Amino acid sequence: MSGRHLTSLAALFVLGLAATPATAGVDVTFACGSTGIQSRLCDEAAKAWSAKTGNTVKIVAAPQSTSEQLALYQQFLTGKSGDIDVFQVDVVWPGILGSHFVDLKQYVDQATIDQYFPGIVQGLTRDGHLLALPWYTDAGLLYYRQDLFDKYQLKVPATWEEMTAAAKTIQEGERKAGNDRFFGFVFQGRAYEGLTCDALEWIVSFGGGDIVEADGKITVNNPQAAKALDLAASWIGTIAPDGVLNYTEEDARGVFQSGNAAFMRNWPYAASLAEATDSPVKGKVGYAPLPKGDGDGARHAATLGGWQIAVSKYSAHPKEAAEFAMYLTSREEQKRRAMEGGYQPTIPALYEDQELLAKRPFFKITRQILDGTAARPSAVTGERYSEVSTLFWNAVHATLSKNGDAATNLAQLEKDLNRLSRGGRW
C-alpha cells in the first residue's frame, strides 16, 4: 500500500467530532476500529468523556483489516505525526510500535493497573514501561447453529475431524432442502493477520508448536503443523466457499449471520450481533471452544487477541490523551461495551458481575477459553513480528489455495524465517 494511499485513508476515515463542550478544552484524536459496532461505541464514549471533561474527541475510523491498520499507524508514527493522539492497538503491536508510545505509568496509579489481567499487562510492558492499557481481550471461538444440530441430531464437535463431518452433514441436508448457498464452515481466510490467528489455532490444536518458540527456535516445519494445514486446505471448495480465501471477520459473520453457514470461527464480538433483534439467527446460535486436532500434544487452542489503548509520544496533549485512555479502559466503560457489544473485558472482576453474565451468558464459556489461549510469537520476534506473520500467512494462504501442499510450503517458510532471524537470533 502506497504512502499516498495511506495518507488519503487517514482523511477518508474521519467520522466527525464529538459534541462541542460548553467550556474550552483541548482536542484529542482517537483512531478507533470499525468492525461491527465499534464506531458507534467509540463515538458514544467520546461524547460522554467530552461532556465530562470539556475536551473534544475526534474519531478516526481505522480500516477493518488489521494489516492495513498497522501500515497506516506505522506511517503516522514513524513520521512523528501528532495528528492522532490515542491509538487502538492490537495485542501484538507493542513490540512493533512501542517505541512511539508514552509510558502510561506516569499517569496511571498502580491500583488501576492491578485491576487488569496480569498476563495482559505483562505483555504490554517493555523495559518497565507500560505502553498501553488493556481495553478488551479476545480469543477465537466456535459458533454453531444449535437449531440445525437439533434437526440433524448432532453433538458439538470436540475435534476438527468431527467438525468437518458435521459440517458436511448439515451442508448436504440444507442444500437438499433448497438452500444452495449454504456452507458448512466459514472463517478468516484472507492473506492478513486474521489468517495468522486462525492458522495458529489449527497448528497448536494439532500439537504443531507456536511457529517460533519462546527461545527463538523456529519449529513451524513439522508433520503435525502440516497435517493441520492440509486438513484446512481440504475445506476449501467443500465445506467452505472458495471465497473464504478473501474473508475477514465481517465477511465470515455476514455469511453466518444471514443463516448460510453451520459453523463459524470468529471473535466474541460477533455474538452480540448474532443475537441482535434483526438477526436471522437470533436464538439459534451455540458457542463452544474451537476443536482440537489429534496426536500427541493435541488440545483446544484459541489465539489470544484483544485490543489496547496507547498514547502517542507525539501528541500535543499527552496528559489529556492518557486521561481519555483511562476512561476508555475503566471498569464502567468496559462493562458498557460488554453489555452493548459483547466485548470481552480485561478486568477479571467483571466476569463475576451478575448483571453482565445475565446479558452475556456466553462469557462463562469465553472466560474458560481465555485460560487456554495461544499467543502469537510477537514477544520473541519483537519488531520483526509483522514480517514473521506476513511470511506465515502467505505460506498458509498458498496451502489453502492449493499452491503447494503444507509440507512444501512450511519447508520454504522455515528457510525464509531462518534468513529473517539470522539463524534464530531475533
From TrEMBL:
It is found in: Periplasm. InterPro entries: Bact_solute-bd_prot1, SBP. The keyword Signal applies. It comes from the Bacteria. Keywords: Signal, Transport. The keyword Transport applies. Its main location: periplasm. Residues 1-24 form the signal peptide. Pfam families: SBP_bac_1 (PF01547). Belongs to the bacterial solute-binding protein 1 family. This is Trehalose/maltose transport system substrate-binding protein. The lineage of its organism: Bacteria, Pseudomonadati, Pseudomonadota, Alphaproteobacteria, Rhodospirillales.
